[in-house]
Amino acid sequence: MDLNNIWNSFLEKIKVQISDIAFETWFSETKLISLNNKTATVLVPYHIHKKNLSENYSDIIEEVFTEISGSNFKFNYVIEEEVENNLTEDNQIIGVPNNNDLYESNLDPKYSFENFMVGPSNKFAATSALAVAEQPGKMYNPLFIYGSSGLGKTHLMHSIGNYIIKNSNKKVLYITCDNFVSDFVDICRKNAGSNNMDAIKQFKNKYRDIDVLIIDDIHNLVGATSAQQEFFNTFNELYNNEKQIIISSDRSPDDIKKLEERLKTRFNWGLQVNILPPDFKLRMSILNKKIENNELSGVVPEDVKEYIASNCVGDVRKLEGAITRVFAYATMMNGSDITMDLTIEALRDYFVKTIVSKNKMDQVVQIVCDHYNLTNEELLSKKRSNDIAIPRMIAMYICRVYLDENLTKIGIQFGGKNHTTVMHAVDKIKKEIIKDDYLNGEIQKMLNEIR
C-alpha cells in the first residue's frame, strides 16, 4: 500500500471542495505516515493544524478519505516532534480556548490572505490569523500579534477582518489604539460639567456592539491611565460575550512597560504570535510580487533584486519602498533600463548602510555545508541520519553560542524546528565538545571562517 499515492489522491479530491487559501494553509503540507487499526495518522506542521483539522474539517476529511480508500478511518494528527519522540496527544485539547446595517469597519480592502507573502518568519502568525478568521471568537481569543514595525502585522489584521466580512454577517471594527484613546478623550470632554449620556452610549455602542474588535498598536495605551481602564472594561464585555478580539503591538504583552498587569494577564489568555523579519528568500518573493504589479515588470535584473533584498533586512515597507523608488527614478531618467548602477544611484540616500551578504546564520549554514560536503537543502531538511543530523546540530550550536541568536529564530532558520529541538541540539554539542577534542577542533576551524 503506497501511502503517498493514497494521500496525493486525497489531496487532489479535497482541493476542489474547499477554498484555495484553506487548502494551502491547512492541507498542502500534510502527509499520511501510517494506516493502522482503522486509524490514519497524518503529519502536520503545527499544533494549530491538529486543532483546526479536527474541529473544522473532520467530516469532509473522513468522507473524502472513505471514498479514496473504501474503508472508514479515524484520524490522528501529529507534529514532527511527536513522531521523533513516539508521542501522540488528543487533538481535541490543543490550543487555548444577525444581519448588519451599514457599518464603518475601517478595513482596507486591498489587504487579504491571498496577497500576504508567507515564509518561515511569519507562517505561524499567518496560519493562526486564518484560523481566527474562520472561527472568530472560538479559536484563539484574544489573538495577540507582535513584532517590529513594517513586518505585516497590520496587513494580517485587515486580512482577518476582510475575510470575516466576506464570509459572514458579523460586525467588524478596525481601529488604531491612538484613535481609541482619542475617542475616549472626546467623550470625557463632552461629559465634563454635564451629564452627556448620549456621547457615552455612542462610544460604548461603537466599541461593544460588534462581533470583532481589531485594535492596532496597543502599546500606545501606555500612559493613558483612564483609557486603560475603559479598554479593560471594553475587553471584558467583548470577551464575556465570546466576541473576537485581535490586538497588535511592537512587543509582547509582558514587555509593554507601564501597562496595567490585569491587561497583560488578559492579553495572555489567548494566543501570542510573533512576526520576525523576513529571510532573504521571502524578501526576494516580496520583491518579485511587487514587481509583478508594476508596469515595468520583467525588466529588473536578478542582481538588482538581490542587492535590494540584501540591504532591506528588517522592514517589508522599506523593501517595497526601495523598488518603488527605483521604478520612479528610472521613469525620471526618461525610461532608462533598470541596471545595477541606476539602482545604486537611486538608493544612494535610502539605505543607511550596505549589507552585501545575507545574515550571519546564512553564512554559518554555508560554512558547515562546505565543511561536511552537504547541500543547504540537506542540512535544512528533516533527515535524521547522523551524517546530516550532527552537522545540523553543530550549525545550531554555533548560531546559539557564538552569534547569540534566540532559539525561535534559529528554529525558523533550520526549517521551522521547535525551540526545544534547537535547545536539545545545542546542549548535545556542548557535552560532546567537552569529551571530543577532534570535534572541538573542527568547530574552531569553522568559527575562523565566520567574518
Verbal overview:
It is a single chain. This protein has 451 residues and is of the alpha/beta class. Helix content is 53%, strand content 9%. It contains 21 helices and eight strands. It has helices at residues 3-15, 20-26, 47-56, 58-69, 80-84, 123-134, 153-167, 177-191, 197-208, 225-240, 261-267, 280-292, 302-311, 316-332, 340-346, 360-372, 376-379, 386-401, 407-413, 419-435, 437-449, and strands spanning 31-36, 39-43, 74-78, 143-146, 172-176, 212-216, 244-249, 271-274. It has a five-stranded parallel β-sheet, sandwiched between helices. Strands 1-2-3 form a three-stranded mixed β-sheet. α19 crosses α20. It is globular and about 80 Å long. The model is unreliable at 88-102 and 353-358 (pLDDT under 50).
Topology of this structure?
Elements lengths: L2 H13 L4 H7 L4 E6 L2 E5 L3 H10 L1 H12 L4 E5 L1 H5 L38 H12 L8 E4 L6 H15 L4 E5 H15 L5 H12 L3 E5 L8 H16 L3 E6 L11 H7 L3 E4 L5 H13 L9 H10 L4 H17 L7 H7 L13 H13 L3 H4 L6 H16 L5 H7 L5 H17 L1 H13 L2
Parallel strand pairs: 2-3, 4-7, 4-8, 5-6, 6-7
Antiparallel strand pairs: 1-2
